[in-house]
What does this fold into?
Amino acid sequence: MLSIREKVRRVVEASDSKLGVSFDWTIQIFIILSLISFSIETLPNLSNSTSEFLYLVEIASVVVFTAEYLLRLWVSKKPQSFIFSFYGLIDLLAILPFYFSSGLDLRAIRSIRLLRIFRILKLIRYTKAMNRFHRAIVIAWEELVLFFCTTLILLYISAVGIIVLKMNSNRKPLPQYFIAFGGQ
It folds into this structure.
């Protein structure tokens, strides 16, 4: 016989049941609604009724995301590991701006609401393709680092070549492009 915690864990962490799939779809729909309302909030001259409706969508989203975060924390076998995991941090960053800006009239705190964009990262949890992409990056990490280093070297050589060619074609003194890097 499964405990309540085990039953909830199967719904929250696995998508092998109708209830688990419904849970995943509900969270994904709220993520998309939250992102759409965040985008609409940036439009100028919104009516009061539209602003109020968007605020209600924000509250509903935060309630759902908070419940999801607390459920995931509760069913986690190692809660501290969940809190500091990639998905745990993303889930927390998705809800903290609301709590930091609620009830406070500090102008600087309002900029924290921009962190709501982290909600888009919550979608990563629900895509198998992103998990495969992550595994591929881990496997090919050294090759990617080598590629980017080679790219930076080639970019530098190209930039120097362009400067030298420009200098030779105009017969003007070389501009001091590299002073910021300690050149003379």
User: Anything to note?
Assistant: The CA atoms of residues 39 and 102 lie 19 Å apart.
